[in-house]
Design brief:
By secondary structure, the chain is α/β, with parallel strands linked by helices. It has a single domain, classed as 3-Layer(aba) Sandwich (Rossmann fold). Helix content is 25%, strand content 24%. It has seven helices and seven strands; from the N terminus they run ββαββαβαααααββ. It has a seven-stranded mixed β-sheet. The radius of gyration is 17 Å and the shape is globular.
Length: 222
């Protein structure tokens, strides 16, 4: 995997992420040339709590944009795209994946990491079916969607999510998800991630499960 990032310029959606730093699971930052960062907001609950910029020395530009609407980014702009624990926060995963593919050069790679629900607060929820995600794409579902909120509120394991607070605090946070983006709209497994990558016509190079929390998809634009 490392040669795919060595000396290359890329884009990370929702970063920076500690999983990509030196001595962590997939150390991309220390081998790539530059990495631009895109978030839905310049200030969010992850960047504010993690002090995340201190471990990345080669950030290029930082800009705001929706994961599924990178309208300021031209086609074929980057040699790789990273997204760690972002896709589950998007209301329209296929739209996001298609955008990430669009901004890749031919031969560029996409590295997507989603939660393994078995060891997270989503463990009571069923894996989302592909047909549901495809239907959301066809309906052009936007980020203000809260159609999954009752399922989330009834099945979310608050004991595994102490930062969410009480049941009432969690409900209030979900209702203002458009400004917070902490809610998991969909639940993934390896098969669903592979299906989505295949559907957007990416060549799957590898998928893996890294315990306790990560499902990894690695694919090439051909």
């Amino acid at each position: 995997m490392k040669p795919r990032f060595l000396g290359k310029s890329g884009l990370e959606i929702g970063g920076p992420s500690r999983i990509f730093q030196t001595d962590h699971l997939i150390p991309v930052y220390d081998v790539c040339k530059t990495i631009d960062i895109c978030n839905f907001s310049l200030r969010n609950i992850w960047s504010e709590s993690a002090g995340s910029r201190e471990f990345v020395s080669n950030i290029g530009k930082t800009f705001t944009g929706e994961a599924g609407d990178l309208q300021t980014v031209p086609d074929a702009s980057y040699e790789f795209v990273l997204a760690s624990h972002v896709l589950e926060h998007t209301a329209n995963p296929l739209r996001a994946l298609r955008e990430w593919r669009r901004v890749l050069v031919p031969g560029g790679v996409l590295l997507v990491i989603v939660p393994d629900k078995r060891n997270t607060f989503d463990h009571r929820r069923a894996v989302t079916c592909f047909e549901h995600i495809e239907s959301d794409f066809q309906a052009d579902v936007r980020e203000d969607d809260v159609s999954h909120i009752e399922e989330i509120l009834s099945l979310h394991d608050l004991e595994l999510d102490p930062e969410a607070g009480s049941a009432e605090q969690f409900r209030e946070r979900c209702l203002r998800n458009i400004s917070v983006r902490a809610m998991h709209h969909h639940v993934f497994d390896s098969d669903l991630l592979r299906h989505l990558l295949d559907h957007i016509e990416m060549k799957i190079l590898n998928t893996a499960v890294e315990q306790p929390f990560h499902i990894i998809g690695f694919a090439e634009k051909v």
